[in-house]
Amino acid sequence: MNPAANVVLRRWRMADADAVVEACNDPLTRRYLPLLPDPYTRSDALSYIGNGDTAHAVVDGHTDEVLGAIGSTPDRDGGAEIGYWVMPAARGRRVATTAVELLSARLFQSDLRRLRLQTALPNIAAQRVAIAAGFVREGIARGASRNRDGSRFDTVVWARLADDPPGPSPRPLPDLPGGRLTDGVVVLRPLTEDDGLVTYDMRSLPEVSGSSVVGTPMDPAAVTRQCAESGAKWLAGQRAEMTIRRAGDDAYLGEIALYYAEPALREAMIGYSLTPAARGHGYATRAARLVTGWGFEIGMNRMIAGTAVDNVASQRVLEAAGYSRESVQLERLPGPEGTRIDNVAFAKLRPAAT
Length: 354
Prior knowledge:
It is built from eleven helices and 15 strands.
């Protein structure tokens, strides 16, 4: 049975105030709604309920239990922006998705033609709601939202038109099967905010940061933020970043990513880094095989990778993972102090169907 099948929208009642207080003092709610009063009091809840002309309570249709809230704000272009929150105990039950679908249907019936959602970059759950409800990612609105201290943060903009097909909206890069890839020796899992410090420690090693195309911020908080926002890039179809862990004790070994820069060509690139203690044990080869195989399973025709000319160890990893050396690309990669270095290009083609 769909756990959200009985979700309904109704008007707020004064008896709902305690539920509103609980939800609006929840740390996760407050993280993504930073302008809520702090602390959020019963008086705040009663004021919200009394002024909630465009907001609805999201409730269980059988028990009338409050599961969340949802509302819309008209814009100047004949559309509206939807916002919502979900009670802590109701998360993971498709409550938000169902509520967004219900409210979207009502708004489209009232002749609105375009609806928007905005989600914080680290709020992966909200982005999954947008996709499931048929919204399409349009881009990043820089500095679109404000924290309590006046600082600004970026948001992902999602939109749905009245004649769009029902959700979910297409995703170029799907989730890993079962949430991970493993060969019994290594386990690959999506990079998350919790991986921030170990990722910083590895990326800041001279031999890692020196060979990185994008470089590594010398700030643990910046790397942790990058890890927190990694899931947004995955959902956008830009890249799938994963940690490499040892099966059994879950020891951190490094990271690997699939970069999807050429959707029209069905071509993706892999890149990886290991901690010093993890090198020389075949872990990088195993991770490269897993990601490459997954890439072919999700429709890639060609997987590519590259290394500096003097990075013999990485070249051996790629060869062991079934990649073939194609060429040397002169001065393709940035080097130290503004120099350029040559890249040894490798590729592997999708295996022929048998």
